[in-house]
Amino acid sequence: MSNVLDPKDWSAFRAFSHAALDDALDYLEGIRDRPVWREMPDDVQARLNEPLPVDPMPVEAVYRTFVESIFPYASGNLHPRFFGWVQGAGTPTGALADLLASTMNPNVGGRNHGAVFVERAVLRWFCELFGFSERASGVLTVGASAANLIAVLVARTRVLGVQVREQGITREGGRLIGYASSATHSCVRRAFEVSGLGSGSLRVLPTDSFHRVDPAAVARAIADDRAAGNRPFILVGNAGTVDVGAIDPLDELANLAQREGLWYHVDGALGAPAMLSASLAPRLRGIERADSIAFDFHKWLQVPYDAGALLVRDAELHRETFASSPSYLTRMPRGLASAQPWFTDFTIDLSRGFRALKIWFTMKEYGASGIGAAIEANVRQARQLGDLIDADPDFELLAPIGLNIVCFRYRRAGLDEEELDRFNDELVIALQESGEAVASSTTVGMHRAIRICIIKHRTTDADLVYTLETIKKLAHHTGTSKNPAV
After folding, report:
1. Would you say 79 and 460 are in contact if contact means Cβ atoms under 8 Å apart?
2. What angle do CA 311, 312, 316 make, to 5 degrees?
């Protein structure tokens, strides 16, 4: 019996593969014909809860199980009326690029091969976009959460020196302190926890009525920490907060960070790609002054999951934070082990997939102008939805619309605030279960909100109107948690 795992009949496998690709393309082409989301039934879940397969099974049988038990129960984020959370829709070309990347199956931790040079090219494009020089570095990650962690580690190296890798963090010289707003993504707090700094070392500051941090409040907090013997070292600004899409005063924060000698990091997971839009880019003024920027390709840039990135202005500091040279990773002047620097010198991972190919395909096919136009359309749609909500007495807008996120609630007479919160949460669940659209829930101020994130290139103006009408219909049949009728 052969131990080779390739097909025994390549012609048959080719025919099977073409049929599977046709199924995938039919799925994408007909995305509107299916519910946005539907829950996987208990019996289907049980079918997947099987023991480890021991004996071989024909790939056609494996595929049938996929088509019957997995394919119909996607999360829904490809659909034009998926407005829950900040999840991009991908593109057919991006999916094809993933297939090609998997076919090549390279390890992009380093060495001299094509995938490395594609990732370098993609990172150069975005260094250029954000005004970083050729002395900057970058690395693709699983997402902005990992990118934010890497940024905190690089900032930690800047203030403590490379010896922190061996000696660890001590309180000598004062506790390291970072600053961010209460609207900052929770992954920044997690980065402080994972890096050994502790979440207590992150000062979480209040926001104004537009959900932006106040630079004066940050300055006061820095002064208080210095007076207490602490050591301020990093300031995090937001280019699009996760709850409402607010943009911090990035230029003012850059001035403050420069004046105080702090590392200035911008979390642009949501909003940084707005730099591709000539009309929106001025709202991000100051992002080009950051020491590091985290952002995602799998959100507004419509690249399939997963693909995030970190850019760092000081490439040498970035490298010193991670680089190592064990004998089994000896770099050579020629051959496969050449082409320094290696990406593993700029991140935690040695084994890395070929994420750059789907980014390269997407940006080459649609261009910066095409992606930028899609982003502009989503921002216009968010404003349009806000106008519809303002004009409807059944709804109440709960936050200013910063970019592409709309937070509002349904106002039902006779309910107190606590009941109204439960009612709107039930509405979100009912909308998801209807299969007509998906929204998410959040808290804005003191109120529970229906959160609509418009980030799909497939979304039309009619989809927004339809979603509001569906919410209103559901509201007439939905009770509070005291008397649920969902």
Report:
1. no
2. 135
- C-beta of residue 397 within 8 angstroms of C-beta of residue 384: no
- pLDDT band, very low/low/confident/very high, at 481 (cuts 50, 70, 90): very low
pTM: 0.95
Rounded Cα distance, 41 and 45, in Å: 6
Interacting residues of 431 by C-beta distance below 8 A, sequence separation 6+? 437, 438, 439, 467, 470, 471, 474
User: How many DSSP H helices and E strands does the chain contain?
Assistant: 14, 11
Half-sphere exposure of 211 (CA within 13 A, CB side): 24
Structure confidence by residue, pLDDT tens digits, 263-295: 999 999 999 999 999 999 999 999 999 999 999
Q: Using CA atoms, how far apart are residues 226 and 223, in angstroms rounded to an integer?
A: 5
Element (H, E) at 241: none
What domains are defined for the chain? 9-37+74-92+366-486 (3.90.1150.170), 106-353 (3.40.640.10)
